[in-house]
Design brief:
Length: about 350
């Protein structure tokens, strides 16, 4: 919040209304609220559902109850001599019009770079953020190890997804990071296939993409396992994806372009003859949102910075046969990366 205040011009306030950025800056999660930051003051305005909890936990700014949004916002701008209000440019035309009407004659500007600056801050994780993400990851890993004993021929994809989510919840996850992927056989060739009543058979690959949340922070991992046996081709594809995943991990360090990391994984898959079957980017940032900056893709010129957390998830998807994806989360350092995922990556045959 201090960095936002320092970034603001004189007599200007930042109005933060999106849930994820309010939580990032104040440390408090709520479905509704408004955070105002000026050079010398900051206040989180909440309704009666959250006010008591926020007053007990928020240390970074004042917390006040609002009954009428326009009155609270106008009191803040008058008390702080505000002439201009910056807001996130994800605001809708209707919302922007409403804020301008509330605060007239104060200028309310959306195209001001505020959102871009907050997103830049969010890319480099603090020690506390890393701790939360690691805790979420450990929850997911523990659930995965449990589910290995559950998977066998005859269970359905939906059974596996439900068991993963139940186990994560049991071990402390607030909610799944996203809709859990658990797809088997031919459907494993769908990167984001939806689990249904399809029954697992011997000889199937099962791809599971899932994550837990802890204190609002997400984890993200993918593992592919075989049931009963794996053919020589299945083993070849799996080994190729694993080599690609390790190549990307080796390429990661501060100062390297995201496109170079993607290229490192893609080159391994192409040399093995499966280049046409890697159909998505190698990774993405992970934090308060499951997909954050940066995008680790073939066209991304963004340079990795120390403190970023990215996923590393190459895959091969052969239509009408099977698919394989392996995913870890990497913490970027000046000299390389630290793998935040400590789960087995060699092929598991159940």
């Amino acid at each position: 919040m201090k960095r936002i205040a320092d970034w603001l011009p004189e007599n200007t306030a930042a109005l933060i209304f999106t849930e994820v950025n309010r939580q990032y800056l104040s440390g408090f999660s709520s479905s509704l609220g408004f955070l105002l930051i000026s050079k010398d003051d900051s206040c989180l305005f909440l309704d009666g559902r959250y006010i008591l909890a926020a007053k007990q936990s928020v240390k970074a700014c004042r917390v006040e109850l609002f009954k009428k949004v326009s009155d609270s916002l106008n009191d803040f701008v008058k008390q702080n001599g505000i002439k201009t209000v910056f807001c996130e440019d994800t605001i809708s035309v209707a919302q922007l019009g409403s804020f301008r009407k509330m605060l007239a004659p104060i200028d309310v500007i959306a195209d001001c770079g505020l959102l871009e600056y907050i997103e830049e801050l969010r890319t480099a994780k603090t020690d506390l953020e890393v701790e939360c993400i690691v805790k979420a990851q450990r929850i997911a890993e523990k659930a995965f190890l449990d589910v290995l004993d559950f998977i066998k021929a005859g269970v359905t994809e939906r059974d596996i997804a439900a068991e993963l989510e139940y186990r994560m919840k049991k071990y402390g996850s607030e909610k799944p990071s996203f809709d859990t992927v658990a797809v088997a056989g031919l459907k494993s060739a769908m990167p984001h296939g939806v689990p249904d009543g399809s029954v697992v058979k011997n000889g199937d690959f099962i791809t599971m993409d899932f994550g837990a949340t802890y204190n609002g922070y997400h984890s993200d991992m993918t593992r592919t396992v075989a049931v009963g046996f794996a053919t020589d081709k299945m083993q070849l594809v799996y080994d190729t994806v694993l080599k690609a995943q390790l190549a990307a991990e080796k390429a990661v360090k501060a100062g390297i372009k995201c496109s170079d990391v993607d290229t490192a994984a893609r080159a391994v898959i192409a040399i093995a003859g499966f280049g046409d079957y890697f159909t998505h980017s190698t990774g993405h940032g992970v934090g308060l949102e499951i997909h954050e900056a940066p995008n680790v893709s073939l066209v991304s010129e963004t340079e990795l910075k120390s403190g970023m957390i990215i996923s590393d998830e190459p895959g091969i998807y052969i239509e009408n046969e099977f698919g394989v994806r392996i995913e870890d989360m990497l913490f970027v350092t000046e000299n390389g990366s630290k793998n935040l995922t400590v789960c087995e990556k060699s092929l598991i045959i159940l």
